Give the backbone structure.
Amino acid sequence: MSVITILCMLVIVLSITVFMVWASASIRSGVYVRAFCREKTDRKVVYLTFDDGPHPPETERVLDVLRERGARATFFLIGSKVSGNEAVLRRMLEEGHALGLHTYSHAGTFPLLSFDKMLADVNEGKRAVESVAGKKISLFRPPFGVTNPTIAKVVRTLGLQTVGWDVRSFDTMFCKSSEHSCKQSGYSCKQSGHSCKQSGHSCKQSEHSCKQSGHDWYLPVVERIMKQVRPGSVILLHDRLDGASDLLSLLLDSLAASGYDFTCALPNTLISSSDSSETNLS
């Protein structure tokens, strides 16, 4: 076998591998699962979506902001968090928001589970949410937005409608980066030992400043969202983050200033189209 032949085979294998990774990692790819990621429209409307809740008290703060601004959102809920937070789910429904499924466990290994275990996990989460909602919930967002043939089979089996996004805020990454920076600053202050005690007031000021800056992580997130947003966008956010309500308030200010309407939640039944990532809801 010639060197050229071997190289060609390696390129083919590498290309197939890259394609398969992309197909699984990008929920917009539509290779395994047809997902709603954006409405096909010229109207300046956006859909706010929150993952990983309910997570009191921040989820309730997020709901407060939504109510004050007349905004609606879709919450993709982790089933294991429903027990003890039933009142939060009922409030979501009473205030015009939509509910979606985000599995029961949200395990890091979820995409690697067998069909039977994955089906059981999603079904358990479905039962938990529906027991409070009092109605069938069909909207589903897989953890991390990862799709594969097993997830596709579960979606078909349960008759779910997968929802992705076209604007990924990366709010979790910005928040973690801010927390890490704050912890480093606190450690540095402790390390200074004797000098820190001598300048006690200065040290306390530094810690206060760190706490304040820790809540400023949402500023670059809003800037990132506004660079990507367009008519019909589905925006991915997380209501489990400390400061999520502050992020939301600033985001709504920016969206309103740009003429966007954020008064609609996603309908429980989405209309399919030939384009897996963009759908016309009207």
